[in-house]
Specification:
With 319 residues, the chain is α/β, with parallel strands linked by helices. It folds into three domains: 2-90 and 279-298, Rossmann fold; 93-173, Rossmann fold, CATH 3.40.50; 181-273, NadA-like (Rossmann fold, 3-Layer(aba) Sandwich), CATH 3.40.50. Helix content is 45%, strand content 16%. It contains 15 helices and twelve strands. It has helices at residues 2-17, 30-38, 46-55, 67-76, 92-95, 99-108, 122-125, 137-146, 157-167, 186-195, 209-212, 221-230, 245-251, 283-292, 301-318; strands at residues 20-25, 42-44, 60-64, 81-83, 112-117, 130-132, 150-154, 171-173, 199-203, 217-218, 235-239, 256-259. The strands form three sheets. Strands 2-1-3-4 form a four-stranded parallel beta sheet, sandwiched between helices. α1 (2-17) runs parallel beside α14 (283-292). The longest helix is centred in the last third of the chain and has 18 residues, at 301-318. The N and C termini lie far apart (42 Å). Bound molecules: 1,3-dihydroxyacetonephosphate (13P) and iron/sulfur cluster.
Length: 319
């Protein structure tokens, strides 16, 4: 509509005036994803978001996603201004892994390599040997296990358990979970699969074991999007945040996409999975932050320097 078009035009002007670029996650509102693409920014998974920030010559990065994504951008690019539409957009994994308790866990197991998921605070990353995202967790742990290393993993127990099963690595798991992916129900998924026998099942590894066990493809957001474009199946049952459907439809408009059920009853989901913190990003607060410059990520320099080491290690490994 006209109001939205005018709002997008104002944001475009603000981005140009401030030499700013948008970096948006696949779970954010489709208006933000399309605007990022139209203005020379990037829509990506958390690993590609981190890399893009280091490759652009924009002076300001506006990270549309959740707080850890903004923090990672700032850690990698201290000379750039990093804004977010709302700094209060957190993540249940980050919230469930406070730095003090995590540090005590590490102290109790000094003979373990510390591998943390990107969905953590800068303080937690500062305690890690490796940071990983879901697109690279498996090869990193394989690499460490091949060297005979024991692993301390945090915070997502489902992703950790999946990696443990796939690699056979000896892993101690922190007890965290994603409130969005934990809602997928295996029994209801079995019913949807029976109704759609030609569908491939795509699952993000933050989902519970019994859901992961039914997957044809387990992967990060970008890996699940690639599967929709590469597999021959006409239909896909997708167990991850519904924000991902915008990019899947854009790249594979003829494929039928079915959200995996989050409710125990019924064959389809009543309310699709959607992260409440990703939903805090909108065109309105994006315009506001570009005007006011508040909601800027700040990180203590000592923490930043320490957290940079395992993040860089991840980017170098992924190259
Ligand atoms: P990806 O790294 O797969 O984009 O996942 C980020 C995330 O928060 C999933 O819930
Ligand atoms: Fe965190 Fe889950 Fe939201 Fe991803 S979907 S940002 S893991 S709460």
């Amino acid at each position: 509509d006209a109001g939205k078009a005018a709002l997008k035009a104002r944001i475009r002007d603000l981005l140009t005036a401030q030499k700013a670029v948008l970096v948006a996650h696949y779970y954010t509102d489709e208006d933000l994803q399309s605007l990022a693409e139209e203005t020379g920014g990037k829509v990506a998974d958390s690993l590609e978001m981190a890399r893009f920030g280091t490759e652009t010559d924009a002076e300001t990065l506006v990270v549309c996603g959740v707080r850890f994504m903004g923090e990672t951008a700032k850690i990698l690019n201290p000379e750039k201004r990093v804004l977010m539409p709302d700094l209060a957009a957190t993540c249940s994994l980050d919230e469930g892994c406070p730095a003090d308790a995590f540090s005590a866990f590490c102290d109790a197991h000094p003979d373990h390599s510390v591998v943390v998921y990107a969905n953590t605070s800068a303080e937690v990353k500062a305690r890690a040997d490796w940071v990983v995202t879901s697109s690279i967790a498996l090869p990193v742990v394989e690499h460490l296990a091949a060297q005979g290393r024991k692993i301390l993993w945090a915070p997502d127990k489902h992703l950790g358990h999946y990696i443990e099963r796939m690699t056979g690595a000896e892993m101690l798991l922190w007890n965290g979970a994603c409130v969005v992916h934990e809602e997928f129900k295996s029994f209801a998924l079995e019913r949807v699969r029976r109704l759609h026998p030609n569908a491939a099942v795509l699952v993000h590894p933050e989902s519970p074991d019994e859901v992961v066990d039914q997957a044809d493809v387990v992967g990060s957001t970008s890996q699940l999007i690639r599967a929709v474009t590469e597999l021959p199946n006409p239909e896909f049952i997708v167990a991850t945040d519904a924000g991902i459907f915008w990019k899947m439809r854009q790249l594979a408009p003829h494929k039928i996409l079915i959200p995996a059920p989050t409710a125990g009853e019924g064959a389809t989901c009543e309310s699709c999975a959607h992260c409440p913190w990703m939903a805090m990003n909108a065109l309105q607060n994006l315009e506001t932050v570009l005007k006011t410059g508040d909601q800027e990520i700040q990180i203590d320099p000592a923490i930043r320097e320490r957290a940079l080491i395992p993040i860089r290690r991840m980017l170098d490994f992924a190259r």
